[in-house]
Specification:
2 helices
């Protein structure tokens, strides 16, 4: 009986690659950004500004906010605030 043809990923032979860094030298980066669900809380103080964002980004936040019955602008504000907090803690 003939063996079934292997998928391409089944034929790959893994070897040490000297061009890649050693596993011990890699830095684990923690995902600190909140999920869309976590971006729905109310901000206490805001300042009105005008900003231009690419359409795809705004569309994403609008869709996420609509799914959760919230404000896409609040989600963007919260995301930016989380980013700033993380950067300040790292400094």
């Amino acid at each position: 009986m003939q063996e079934p043809t292997k998928q391409r990923w089944e034929r790959v032979t893994y070897t040490d690659n000297p061009e890649l860094p050693a596993v011990d030298d890699l830095e684990i980066v923690v995902d600190f950004l909140p999920s869309p669900e976590e971006l729905q809380f109310v901000e206490p103080e805001t300042e009105k500004i005008t900003i231009q964002l690419d359409k795809g980004t705004v569309d994403y936040f609008r869709q996420q906010a609509q799914k959760r019955g919230g404000s896409y602008q609040r989600m963007i504000r919260t995301l930016l605030k989380e980013y700033v907090n993380h950067q300040q803690e790292a400094a």
